[in-house]
Design brief:
Order of helices and strands: HEHEHEEHHEHEEHHHH
Largest sheet: 7 strands, mixed
Strand content: 15-25%
Bound molecules: S-adenosylmethionine
Number of helices: 10
Distance between the termini: 43 Å
Shape: elongated
CATH topology of the largest domain: Rossmann fold
Length: about 230
């Protein structure tokens, strides 16, 4: 189990953790990120949490097999609640949906206020996360994309502060991705546009008020994506 090789998504997520940090990996499941961080000498101590018993047992087993039981503290509980005061300086929220990530940050607001930075990797609804961060006193200081097969994942590095957003499209396509011309940005735009086109196709046959509204939203969003694609 030693010399763990992470997938592209997990590798890029782990690479955002600053050397010498004390992270909490929220929703750790297999504990691959904590193991990687300790194994590679990036962090001395990591807290690995999960809300469910199954993942906690899986994490415990993997950590024991790697011989890191002293360095990786496993705790069961919802979101940020298992974290003790001053125990960590950053939190990883990876592999969860955007709505869940927002409710973890919202329910754990007091804990979140004590954490210096966050590495957030939403599986869906990254736009919901960006919007939440924007309206709740966070700034996204870096963003990256990871590709695994046909899928493209978004990784947000976040701290307390505020951002300037002058167009809603930046909730869809992270501003930092555009500014730094992420090498996967074009692929990501194509990927997202195909998803929107798929939704449009499904909605075109429906005539309920909701569907018509949604269709208009999707068509407008598609136009925005096309506009960003032209800028690049
Ligand atoms: C798909 S796994 C992701 C595992 C790992 N973080 C990754 O990125 O590969 C999601 C994990 O989040 C856990 N989870 C779901 N809701 C949670 C919550 N409110 N607090 C903590 N963990 C949660 C689940 O039990 C599950 O183990």
């Amino acid at each position: 189990m030693n010399d763990m090789k992470l997938t592209e998504r997990l590798q890029l997520t782990a690479s955002k953790i600053k050397r010498g940090s004390f992270p909490a990996d929220i929703g750790t499941d297999h504990a691959y990120i904590p193991i990687y961080l300790v194994e590679n000498g990036i962090c001395k101590k990591v807290v690995a949490t999960d809300v469910r018993k199954g993942p906690i047992e899986r994490a415990r087993k993997n950590v024991r097999l790697c011989g890191f039981a002293e360095s990786i503290l496993i705790k069961q509980g919802y979101g940020l609640s298992p974290i003790a005061e001053d125990e960590v300086d950053c939190a990883i929220l990876a592999g969860m949906g955007g709505h869940l990530i927002c409710s973890i940050l919202e329910k754990g607001r007091d804990k979140a206020n004590q954490i210096d930075y966050f590495v957030i990797q939403p599986m869906q609804f990254a736009s919901v996360v960006r919007k939440y961060l924007y309206y709740n006193g966070y700034t996204i200081y870096d963003e990256s994309l990871a590709k695994e097969g046909a899928k493209i994942y978004q990784i947000l590095s976040v701290e307390h502060g505020c951002d300037k957003i002058d167009d809603d499209i930046y909730f869809e396509i992270g501003k930092k991705l555009i500014e730094k011309k992420d090498p996967l940005l074009m692929d990501y735009i194509e990927y997202s546009m195909n998803q929107i086109k798929g939704i449009i196709l499904k909605l075109e046959g429906c005539d309920s008020e909701n569907s018509i509204l949604r269709l208009k939203e999707c068509s407008d969003k598609l136009k925005k994506y096309e506009e960003v694609r032209r800028w690049l």
